Amino acid sequence: MERPARAGEFRVRWETRRQRLRGLVGFARFPYAVAAFSMGEGDRTVGLICRSAVAWGAERLLVIGSPLWDRTTACATDAFIRIEHFPSVADFLMWMESQACPYEPVVAEKTAASVPLQAFTFPQRMLLILGHPSFGVPDSLLWRAPQVHIETALPVPSLNVAVAAGILLYHYWQQVWGGNAPPVSS
After folding, report:
1. What is the rounded distance in angstroms from the CA atom of residue 29 to the CA atom of residue 184?
2. pTM (2 decimals)?
3. pLDDT 10s digits, 105-147
4. Which domains does the chain have, with CATH numbers?
5. How many C-beta neighbours within 10 Å does residue 114 have?
6. Strand locations in 39-80 (E)
C-alpha cells in the first residue's frame, strides 16, 4: 500500500515541473500569433489556448476582452509567451489594421465561406483568430480574413474553442513548418 503524500512532496514535484518549463526560455518561436476572447474571471479557455500556443511555438497570445482569465489552466506556460491585452474588439481591430500588426489574419469559424482544414493553406505569419465560446467571432472581425473550419465525423455544430485551437495549431505547424522545431535566431 502506498503511503499518503506528505506536505512538501507536492512542492518538490512542482519544482521539477517548473524546472522543465524553464527550459522553454532558450527556444526560438515561430512568427505567428493566436487571438482569443476572454470572458473574465474563471475563464479557463484562454489558459488552455495558451498551453497549445506555447506547445506549437507561437510568439504571441493576444487576449481580447477581460484581462482576468484563469491562468491555472495555462499550467505556468503563460510565463513563456508574450501576452498582449486588447480591452475591446475595436481596439484589437485598430491594432490589426495598423502597420504594427506583422501577421496575416485567419478566422477559425464555420461559415458558408469557410474552407475545410484539410484544404486550407495557412500563411506563414498567421494571426489565428479564435471565436468567443458563447458567440463566436464578431461580424466586425469575421469578414476581414479567410475563414477555416474543422470537419467533424458527426454533425456537431461546433467544437470547444480550446480543442479547435489545438487542432488548428497542430495542422499549421505541420503544414508551414513541417513539424520541425523553430529556426534558431542568431
Report:
1. 8
2. 0.83
3. 999 999 999 999 999 999 999 999 999 888 899 999 999 999 9
4. 28-177 (3.40.1280.10)
5. 17
6. 58-65
